[in-house]
Amino acid sequence: MSKLNWLDRQGLAWLVVVLCSGFFAASCATEEAGNSLIFASSADATTLDPHNTTDSQSDQVIWMLYNALIRYDENMQFVPDLATSWSVADDDLTWTFNLREGVRFHDGVPFDAHAVKANFDRVLDPEQGHNRRSLFMPIERVDVVDDFTMNVVTRYPFGAFEPMMAHVSAVIVSPKMAAEKGKDFGYSADAVSGTGPFRAVRWRKDLELIIERNDDYWGDPAKLDEIIYRPIPEAASRIIALESGDVDVITHIPPSDLSRLEEDPFVTITKTLSIGAQQFRFHCKREPFTDPRVRQAVSYAIDRRSIIDNLMPGMVQASTGPLTPRMRGRADLGEFPYDPDKARALLTEAGYPDGFETTINTTARYNMGVELAQAVAAQLAEVGIQAEIEVLEWGSLRQYWGGLLPEDCPLEIFIMGAGASSADADWGLRPIFATQERNENNYGFYSNEEFDALIMEAMREVDTEKRNALYHRAQEIVYLEDPGAVWMYDNFHVVGSRSNVSDLTTSPLGLVTFERAFLTQ
Amino acid sequence: MKSEALRRFRRNKVAVASALVIIAFIVAAAFAPLLAPYGPLEQDLANNYAGPSLEHPLGTDDLGRDTLSRLFYGSRVSLGIAFTSVVIGVFVGAVLGLIAAYFGGIVDSVIMRVMDVMLALPGILLGIAIVVVLGNGVINTVIAVAIFSVPTFARLVRGSALAVLQLDYVMASRSIGASGLRIVLGHVVPNSLTPLIVQSTLQLGVAILIASGLSFLGLGVQPPNPEWGAMLSKGRELVRSTPVAAFAPGMAITILVLSFSLVGDGLRDALDPKLKHR
Amino acid sequence: MLRYVSRRILEMFLALLGTSMLVFVMIHMIPGDPALLLTGLEAGPEVVEQMRRELGLDQPLYKQYWRFLVGALHGDFGTSIRMGVPVLEEILERLPYTLAIAVGGTILATLFGVTTGVIAAVYHNRFWDGLVMVIALLAASTPSYWLGLMLMLLFSLWLGWLPSIGIRTPMHYVLPIVTLAGQSAGIISRMTRSAMLDVLGQDYVRAARARGERERVVVVRHALKNALIPVLSIVGLRFGNLLAGTVLVESVFAIPGVGRLLVDAVLWRDYPMIQGTMLFVAAVFVVVNTATDLLYGVVDPRIRVGNPIG
Questions:
Q1: Per the CB < 8 Å rule, is A28 touching C237?
Q2: A149-154 sheet: strands from edge to edge
Q3: How far apart are CA C293 and CA C290, in angstroms?
Q4: Residues B134-182: pLDDT tens digits?
Q5: Closest in A4, A22, A28 to C310, CB measured
Q6: CB pairs below 8 Å between B and C: how many?
Q7: Which of A358, A428, A460, B39 could form a disulfide with A420 if both were Cys (CB 3.0 to 4.6 A apart)?
Q8: What is the pLDDT of residue C236?
Q9: Is the pTM of this model over 0.90?
Q10: Hey, is the C-beta of B122 within 8 angstroms of any chain A C-beta?
Q11: pLDDT of residue A85
C-alpha cells in the first residue's frame, strides 16, 4: 500500500477530475414566472416541425404554436382556423380555401396563400424526406389564386380530405423561418415560428420546453403567461410531483393510481375518450392464423370485461368496432362477446381441437402492455392455446414492423396501439389492413379481397353517406368475419391536474391543450 | 490456519447473522414450491392490487398474483443470476488474469488495457449495451452481469499472481523447469484464493443490484418471470397504491445484498492474517 | 523520456481507436432500425427509405465507420438523428447536471464513508463496528432508483421539505445527491475501515500509543493521515461508477444528464449519439489516465521501466 500502484494513480486522477469539475458544477437556477403552468408528460417532444412529428408529446406542443387551415371542434365537426371558408368543386378534386387576413407568424412574416403553398410544397418534396409526406400523398398540387385564396388539387376524389387538412401536420409554419433553418427547423426554440397563441421561448431537451403567450395572436389571446413542458419519465415520480404540487398537470397515469387521485381534493382528473385503441394483431400469413376461424377463436376466448374492470379500471372502455367512437366513418358493431365454448368449437372446426402453442409479443411502451399480454395469455390457456409471452423493448419490436416479407417476420400474435392521427376511417383502415406484399404499415399481412375493394372505393368517395356505407361493410369484415386483430379496448385520455387549474382542454385527438386554461388563486 | 479463520469469523456476530440470512434465502429458494402458498404465475384478476391479508400476507400485484409466493420463487431467479454470473466472472477473469501475469509483456499489456477500457465504460452502460444487443432474458442478464465483473477479477488475480510468481521458491521451481500449469495450479491459485473468495462474496450483492438496475430500464429479466428486480421495477409504479408490492421485493433485495456485503467483510477480516493480533 | 512519452500517447490513440471500433460494431449489432423508429407508425415505405439514405444507413459499414472517424478527428461527432442537434454540443450542455450530482455525491459519500469507516475501525469487532457498517452499507445495498423514490416520498410528499423533481434550485439537487452518495458511501466506508485497521496495527501507531499520546491524536494524526491515500484512490475510482450510477438517478429525478442521454440514445438507436457519448466517456477516462501516467513518469522515473505492479 505504500507505493502507489496503477489502481491508485487512476483513482487519484479521477479525484482531480472531481475537484476541477466542482467549480464547473455551479447551480443552474432559473426563475419561476407568476402565471405559469407546468405540464409533465412521460417524454420530451422530439420535434416542433409539424412535418416531422410522429408522437403525441410533440403534437400537443405544436397545437399551441401553430394553426391549421381548418380544425376539429369538440363534436368532431370541422370549423375554420386560418381559413375562413372552404368548398369543393364539382369534380371533387379541387378544394378552394379563403384565408384569414391580417395574421402574422411569430417572426413577423405575414400569413397568406403563398405561405400555405410553401408549406405543402415543403412537406411533399421527396428530397426533403419529411416523416409526414405519406399522409399528404393524395395532394397533387397547391395553387395560389390570389393572396388570400388558394386551391388544393387532389390526385383523385379523396374522401378524407378534410381530416387530412385538420391533421396536426397540416398546420402552417413560417415559410421564411422554414427556408432559413432547413433541416434544423423545429429542433430548437429559435427555429420555430407559427401563428399560434403561444410562441417557443426556450427548449432544453429532456429538461423543459417553455412557451409564452403570443400577445399579437389573431384570435382570443391565451390567459396563461407561459407553459413549461417538463418530461418526467418515471410514472411514480410524476405522480408524486403532482401530489406534492411541484407540477400542475400530468398525463400517463398508471391505472393503479387513478382511483386514489380521483379522491384527492387537490387533484382533478379529466377523462376524454381518445382515438387510441389497444389491440393484438396476428401474423395472418403464418399458421395457424391463416384461418379466420382461429383468429375468431382467439377473440372469443378473451374476457375483455374482466381485464378492463380489474387491470384498467376507469382507464378504458371495451372496443365496439375496429375504429374508436370518435373517428369519422366508424361503425358500431358491438362488443366482441366472451364465449370460450364457441372458441373451442371454432378451434375444433379449424382442426385444432387441443389448441396450439404460440407466442405473444408485447412491449412496455404501451400502458400496461406487458400485464395485458399476461392476462390474455392466461385466458387463452383456458381454451387450450398455450401462449408464451415475449417482451421486447420498443426498438427491437419495431424492427419487425415495416418493409418485411411474411417469411422474414417472426411475430405471431403481437400487441399494437392503433389510433389514426387524422381521426378518419381511411387513415384508420387503409394503411393497416389493405393488402401489402411487405408489411409497410399492414404489419400483420392481413389480406381480404372484398375488404380491399371496399376501402379503395370508399377512399375515392366524397359523399359522406355513401362513404360511410362502404366503410360499414369493410369494418364488418375486418372486425367480425375475417378478423384482422383482437380489439381489446378504447383508451380514455386521462389527465390529472391540480385543482387550481381551470379550463384545460383535451382535444378529440387526445392531446392536452391550454389555449383557454388559467390558474386560480 | 483454516480453523483459526473460522473461529475469527464466528466471533463476528454481524457476519454470522448475515450468513444465516443468506442461508435462509437459499433454503427459501430451494423449497419455494413447499413454502409458497400459490404458484408464481397464478393469476386472480378479480383480486388484484390487494393489500396484506390472511390469504395473501404480502398482498397481490396487478394481475392478482401472490407477492409472497413470487418472492419465494423469485429468490431462485435472483440468486441463480447472482451465483452464475459471479462464477462465470471469476472463471473468465481468473483465466485472463493468470494469462496476463504468467506471460507478461505484450500479452499482459493487451489483456489489461482491454480490461481498462471495460472499466472505463461504466458497468451499467456496458450492461445496457450487452442486453440490448443480445436481447432480454435471464441468460442474457447473466452474461451482462458476468462481463461486468470480469475486469475486477482479472485485475485481482493478476495482482496476486504476480506477487506469487516473484516469490523465490516459485522462481526456483520455474527455473528447474516445472510446467507452467503446475506452477499456476500449485502456487498461484491457492494464494489468490483468499482475495477471490472475499471479492466474489461482495460481487454477489453487486450482481443482484446490477440485474435490478437493468430491470428498472426495462432491459433485464422479463415478466412473467418473478425476478426480484423485475418485481421491484413493476412495484415502483404501485408504490403509492399498493406499497407492499414495492416494499416487499425492495426489502428482499436490500437485505440479501447487505448480507452478502457483511459476510464478505467478515470473511476479509477473518482471512486477513495481518489482523490476527488485534 | 521522449520515447516513453510518445509511446504512451500512441497507446492512448490506439485505445481510443479500439474503443471507437468496439462501440461502432456493438451499435450495429443492436437489433432495430432508427429510420423505422424515427418516421413513426404511419409513415409509408418511401419516407422510411429516404430517411435511411439521409442517415447514411444504406452505405456499407466500413464507409459509415470511416465517415464517423473522419468527423470525430475533426471534433465533429455528427448530429443526433433523434434530436437533430450536434452530438457534442448536447453532451457538453448536459454535462454540468451530471457532474453536479456526481461531484456532490462523491463529496458527500467521502465525508460519510470516511467518518463511519474510522468509527468502525476504532471500535473494531465491537458493537459499534457492526452497527456502523450495517448503516453504512444499507444505502449501498438498495437499488438506487428505489432509494431515490423512497427519499422522494418521505421528503417531498410526506414532509414537504424538499422539491421532488427537476433542477431549478440548489435544493433540487439534495435528494439526487443523497441517493447517489448512498451508493458509494458503503464502499468508501469499508475501504476506510480496512485501511485504518491496517494502519492501526503498524508499529509507529503503537509507538505513538506507547508514548502516551491521546487516542484521538493517534487516530486522526497518525492513522487517518496514512490511511487516506488508498481511500482517496477508491474515491476517485468510484467517481467513474458514480457517473454511471447517475443513469438511474437521473431518470427518477427527471434530470436531463448525460446518463439519460445515452440510455435514450440506445433505446432510439440514435447511432451518432451512442457513439458520441460512449466515446466521450472513454476519451475522458483514457486521456486523464494517460496524463497522470506521464506525470508520474516525470516524478518517479522507475515507472518508465515498466514494472508491472507499479
A1: no
A2: A83-88, A94-99, A149-154, A139-146
A3: 5
A4: 877 788 889 888 988 898 899 888 888 888 777 777 777 777 777 777 7
A5: A4
A6: 137
A7: A428
A8: 67
A9: no
A10: no
A11: 94
Contact flag B237-A254 (C-beta cutoff 8 Å) = yes
Q: Nearest C-alpha of chain C: how many angstroms from B105?
A: 9
Point out the residue among C11, C247, C281 whose CB comes nearest to the CB of B124: C247
Q: CA-nearest residue of chain B to C189?
A: B265
Please give the mean pLDDT across all residues of chain B: 84
Mean pLDDT of chain C: 82
Contact between B264 and B20 (Cβ < 8 Å): no
Most confident listed range (A282-286, A438-442, C214-218): A282-286
Q: What local confidence, expressed as pLDDT, does residue A16 receive? A: 57
Q: With an 8 Å Cβ cutoff, are B223 and A310 in contact?
A: no
Angle between helices B138-165 and B105-120 (to 10 degrees): 140
Burial of B100: CB neighbours in 10 Å, binned 0-12, 13-18, 19+: buried
Q: What is the CA radius of gyration of chain B?
A: 22
Of A323, A339, A317, nearest in space to A432 by CA: A323
- The domains found in chain A, sorted by start residue, are 6-266+499-519 (3.40.190.10), 274-492 (3.10.105.10)
State the Cα torsion B167-B170-B175-B176 to the nearest 10°. 150
Contacts of A256 in chain B (CB under 8 A): 49, 62, 237-238, 240-242
Q: What is the mean pLDDT of residues C276-293?
A: 74
* CB-neighbour burial class of residue A503 (10 A; exposed 0-12, middle 13-18, buried 19+): exposed
* C248/B239 touch (CB, cutoff 8 Å), yes or no: no
User: Which of C26, C137, C145 has its CB closest to that of B216?
Assistant: C145
pLDDT digits (tens, 9 = 90+) for C72-119: 888 888 888 888 889 999 999 998 898 888 889 989 999 999 999 999
Q: Which among A409, A417, A383, A418 is positioned nearest to A298, based on CA atoms?
A: A383
C87-303 homologous superfamily: MetI-like (1.10.3720.10)
Chain A positions touching B240 (Cβ under 8 A) are: 236, 239-240, 243, 256-257, 260
- Touching check for C202 and chain A: CB below 8 Å? no
Q: Cβ of B239 under 8 Å from any chain A Cβ?
A: yes
Question: Could you identify the residue written with the cell 484521538?
Answer: C216
pLDDT mean over C254-264: 87
- Of C137, C140, C285, nearest to B120 by CB-CB distance is C285
Classify each residue of A70-85 as buried b or exposed e, where b means 16 or more C-beta atoms within 10 Å of its C-beta: bbbeeebebeebbbee
The answer for residues whose C-beta is within 8 angstroms of residue C285's C-beta and 6 or more apart is B120, C240
Q: For B70-254, CATH number?
A: 1.10.3720.10
* Preferred mutation among A3, A183, A244 to probe C, highest tally of C CBs within 10 A: A244
Domain boundaries, chain B: 70-254
User: Which band of pLDDT confidence, cut at 50, 70 and 90, is reported for residue C301?
Assistant: low
CB contact under 8 A, B129 and C26: yes
Give the lowest-confidence range in A169-173, A220-224, B187-191. B187-191
Whether B62 sits inside 8 A of A256 (CB atoms) is: yes
ipTM of the complex: 0.84
Number of H helices, E strands in chain A: 15, 21
Residue A253 has pLDDT above 80, yes or no: yes
Question: Does residue B219 surpass a pLDDT of 60?
Answer: yes
A127-170 residue pLDDT tens? 888 888 888 999 999 999 999 999 999 999 998 899 999 999 99
Would you tell me which residues 238-267 of chain C have a C-beta closer than 8 angstroms to some C-beta of chain B? 240-241, 243-245, 247-248, 251, 262-263, 266
Answer yes or no: are the C-beta atoms of A388 and A356 closer than 8 Å. Answer: no
What nine digits make up the cell of C200? 492501526
Beta-carbon separation of A403 and C45 below 8 A: yes
Residues of chain C by 3-state class (helix, strand, coil), percent to 5: 80, 0, 20
